[in-house]
Amino acid sequence: MSLALIQESAKEVRRLSIAGSPLAVQAGGSIVLQEAASGYLLGTNPFSLRLVPGGNAAFQLMARQFGQPIVGQQPMTWEIVDDSGSPSTEIAIAWNGSTDANGLATLEVSTPGGDVDLPKDRTYLDTNIYFGSFSDPDGQPIGDAYADPQANANLSALRFQAYTAPAQPTWQNDVGPVLQAYARLYPGMTQILDIGDESTVEQNAAAIAQRLSLLFLDPALMPVTRDLSPAKVAMIVQWLNSQGSS
Questions:
Q1: Which of 161, 167, 244, 163 is nearest to 209 (CA)?
Q2: What is d(CA 213, CA 216) in angstroms, rounded to the nearest whole number?
Q3: Among 12, 41, 105, 191, fewest CB within 10 Å belongs to which?
Q4: Helix or strand holding residue 26 (H, E)
Q5: Can you tell me the distance from the alpha carbon of 56 to that of 194, in angstroms, rounded to the nearest whole number?
């Protein structure tokens, strides 16, 4: 056997060994990133969802094992935790069918109607956030460092509280409290446009309404964090349009 053939055979053995073994990354002698022992990898698109009370949204799941598509994968076990890390039933995931030839499946996330109890540090945002993490068929969690489900979740969902806008919104009772909260959260913005000041907002009503009405994926959409409920956005836009400013 020639040396070249021996070398190629050795490369193939190493390739096959890597293809069926979990990989790990070390730094300073410690493992900082490690593939699941089963070789499972789950990805979702989109990773982050926004839900209104009683609403639902679909996402695509990608299932791989040692880099190869998992065909015909049936529903896996998942855990949902809220922002405090406590298990939650306020978000549900429905797995419709199994993965196709490309290892893809469509899943649906839903949430019941009405309001939910919010942690104290999220009451001013009027939202709660949830994290979904999956386990492989052997019950082993799928993630790089699963000790923290929030840091290694397969999916996150932001849930808005219920909101009914008044027929005639006012700055003092409705619009102002929302925009002033964002002005406090992002004080650097006030140097460009003080959205916490009523007269400034009135003078720039048309421009602000236009930014609030852009498509969700538009980089110029306000607020950039996408954490304001559609109902409150519509209320603010209604008030801005009533100002008649340009």
A1: 244
A2: 9
A3: 191
A4: strand 24-27
A5: 35
Is the link from the previous residue into 119 a cis peptide, with omega within 30 of 0? no
What is residue 45's three-state secondary structure? strand
Helices (H), the chain: 3-19, 176-185, 198-203, 205-212, 230-241
Highest mean pLDDT among 18-22, 124-128, 131-135, 173-177: 173-177
Number of neighbouring beta carbons within 10 Å of residue 196: 18
Residue 178 one-letter amino acid: V
**DSSP sequence for 83-149:** TTS-B-SSSEEEE-S---TTSEEEEEEE--SS--PPPGGGTTTTEEEEEEEEE-TTS-B-SSSTTST
Are 83 and 26 members of one domain?
no
> For 169-188, what is the mean pLDDT?
92
Q: How confident is the model at residue 1 (pLDDT cuts 50, 70, 90)?
A: low
Which of left, alpha, beta for 138 (phi over 0: left; psi -120 to 50: alpha)?
Answer: alpha
pLDDT at site 12:
46
Residues 45 and 119 in one domain: yes
- φ, ψ for residue 90, nearest 5 deg: -80, -10
Burial class (CB in 10 A: 0-12, 13-18, 19+), 154: buried
Packed helices 176-185 and 230-241: angle between N→C axes, nearest 10 degrees: 110
- Give the amino acid at 185: L
Q: Which residue has the higher pLDDT, 146 or 82?
A: 82
pTM of the prediction? 0.76
23 lies in which domain range?
A: 3-34
